[in-house]
Specification:
The protein contains nine helices and 17 strands. It has about 450 residues and is an alpha/beta fold. It has one domain: Rossmann fold. The strands form two sheets. A twelve-stranded mixed sheet has the order 1-2-14-12-13-11-10-15-16-9-6-5. Strands 8-7-3-4-17 form a five-stranded mixed sheet. The C terminus is likely disordered.
Length: about 450
């Protein structure tokens, strides 16, 4: 069950089950031939059984937290600073933590207790001894190389969208960098792209690019009712590790949100625990786009036994992250949103509790959590995505990162509901009800 607990305080999510929802039917294409397989995201990626993630986990896990924690456990050679010597950012962080501490502590305890009553977060998991997949992601570098490619002419509307798989199963024609690619099938598809094998969920659209090549998404022809973004915020840890290129906060204003958002579109931004980032989103970024701030939610990371992955009051690393929710209110946009007629109020201070992935920057899917606030027929977009979601459109320079086949296990299977090749039609419109697992018969978005 993907949503283990749903209460007035928030949710407990089984993040791995949320991923697996889109892969109950999967077709694997190799050399123009197809076979049926069952796909599951590897279990070891979500087996965080000890606080601090344990000292034996590789430094690549969760952004090098292990390396940082090992340093914490060593005797410090430096003189401890007095509280009065904290810089302003550290003081602001402590003030913010003190403000929300009781909400985090009491809400998490209640949600974890409810989850344990259902047999979840009890620590009783089957240990998997296989190492974590360590796929070297080169997508961002490929995006840099693709900047030399000519952009598709704005007037060539039909050429800005392309099917993932041709009728013969071929994917070699796919231009991932300057056209939006759509998997129009009702099943997940395992395909070879750029010499690597990826698993693509059904009814999914994506664009692999950075800011310089975002035009195909802006001209895609869809106004989205939900936009979730996880920006690559600047911080010292990222700079030291060089795991990915960070982005100055001011550059986020370049995102064409007014071109992408429908009226009353719900916008959700993942924010680090740095107060300056939170202030920037609330006081500068959202007002710049015409977005009204509605609430702050918290993603609380726990172990498989329900303990915080870091001590709640740790000065080095907190076991929670912030999400800022708002609605696009621009009066210039007259597009009718599916959520406009019956907009559900967004409550403040809600918690999303889950076992985090051991893979750096992999966030839990918010699809099930946000469903009541956007409606069953919502069109959904993720910006700075590193994975794909069934029914969603995704954009980013690492948009396929966690779709690499190395993160999945494959089991051959006979599918009695076999789909013939003639059902894969290149000009068939993409139907993308993001929540079609629970809401059948949803109408497609209008291109």
């Amino acid at each position: 069950m993907a949503v283990v607990v749903r209460s007035g305080q928030g949710w407990v999510l089984d993040a791995r089950s949320l991923i697996d929802q889109g892969y109950s039917r999967c077709i694997q294409w190799r050399n123009g031939e197809k076979s049926h397989v069952k796909c599951c995201f590897k279990r070891q990626c979500f087996q965080i059984s000890k606080s601090y993630y344990g000292v034996n986990v590789g430094a690549a896990v969760d952004g090098g937290n292990t390396e940082m924690l090992q340093n914490i456990n060593k005797p410090s050679k430096k003189r401890k600073r007095k509280h009065s010597e904290l810089n302003q950012g550290e003081i602001d962080s402590q003030v913010f933590h003190d403000k929300i501490r009781s909400v985090i502590l009491e809400g998490t305890e209640s949600l974890v207790d409810s989850a344990r009553s259902q047999g979840y977060l009890t620590g009783a998991t089957d240990a998997v001894t296989e190492p974590l997949p360590l796929q070297e992601c080169s997508l961002a570098a490929l995006c840099e190389m693709a900047k030399e490619l000519p952009l598709v002419d704005d007037e060539e509307q039909e050429e800005r969208v392309q099917p993932l798989v041709a009728e013969d199963g071929c994917t070699s024609h796919v231009d991932l960098f300057s056209r939006v690619t759509e998997n129009r099938a009702d099943w997940a598809t395992v395909v070879t792209l750029m010499g690597e094998e990826y698993v693509i969920p059904p009814h999914t659209a994506f664009l692999l690019s950075d800011f310089t090549q975002i035009q195909p998404l802006a001209h895609y022809g869809i106004k989205f009712d939900l936009i979730v973004m996880d920006p690559p915020w600047e911080n010292k840890s990222v700079k030291r590790s060089r795991r990915y290129s960070s982005l100055p906060s001011s550059q986020l204003k370049r995102l064409p949100i007014p071109l992408l958002a429908s009226t009353n579109c719900l916008v959700v931004t993942w924010v680090t625990n740095r107060p300056s980032h939170l202030r920037f989103v609330r006081d500068e970024l959202y007002p710049h786009w015409g977005i009204e701030v509605l609430a702050e939610w918290f993603w609380v990371k726990v172990t498989t036994s329900g303990q915080f992955v870091f001590p709640l009051d740790s000065p080095h690393k907190k076991p929670y992250e912030v999400l800022v929710l708002g609605r696009y209110r621009s009066s210039a946009d007259t597009t009718t949103s599916s959520s406009e007629a019956s907009e559900v109020p967004v409550e403040d201070g809600r918690l999303i509790v889950s076992v985090p992935s051991a893979l750096h920057s992999q966030k839990p899917s918010l699809s099930e959590v946000l469903k009541p606030y956007v409606g069953a027929e919502a069109s959904c977009l993720e910006l700075f995505a590193r994975s794909l979601q069934q029914g969603w459109t995704s954009w980013g320079n690492e948009v396929l990162k966690f779709q690499h086949s190395s993160y999945f296990t494959f089991t051959p299977t006979d599918d009695p509901a076999d789909v013939s090749k003639d059902e894969v039609c290149a000009d068939k419109p993409l139907v993308t009800p993001a929540f079609n697992n629970s809401f059948e018969g949803s109408s497609p978005p209008h291109h």
